[in-house]
Design goal:
single chain; 125 residues; mainly alpha; elongated
Length: 125
């Protein structure tokens, strides 16, 4: 996964209130790219060289972009989970855009919200 592709994906995710379809192995692919960059970095004899600096900047940029992408998607998933727990309509196409790990997070959050509502609100009523 190239940094430019990740940045385009991040921009798309920022610009829309809905989840953007991403490839299922995006994070795995980005992890492999990071491994390759780290291998190249460790192979450089002079850690203060221009080549090393460029690799370090690229590694940092990929990591930051992945973190931003995760954060934005997690916020959208939390919003979907609140909507689901409230019993409001959720577009099923939106749920299809979730990665398997994101779907698991969504299900766990919905369950936690439902359990908290039962213990706190319905127990009082």
């Amino acid at each position: 996964m190239h940094l430019d592709e990740l940045r385009i994906l991040l921009l798309s995710e920022r610009e829309t209130g809905r989840l953007v379809h991403i490839q299922r192995d995006l994070f795995v692919s980005a992890g492999k790219s990071l491994e390759e960059l780290y291998t190249s970095l460790y192979a450089i004899a002079d850690p203060f060289s221009e080549e090393a600096r460029v690799l370090i900047e690229r590694i940092t940029a990929i990591k930051e972009t992945l973190s931003d992408l995760y954060r934005i998607r997690a916020e959208k998933i939390l919003s979907l989970a609140r909507t689901q727990e409230e019993g409001s309509y959720i577009d099923r196409e939106e749920l299809k855009k979730l990665l398997p790990e994101e779907k698991d997070m969504f299900d766990q959050v919905v369950l936690s919200l439902e359990q908290a509502r039962c213990r706190l609100v319905e127990g009082v009523l």
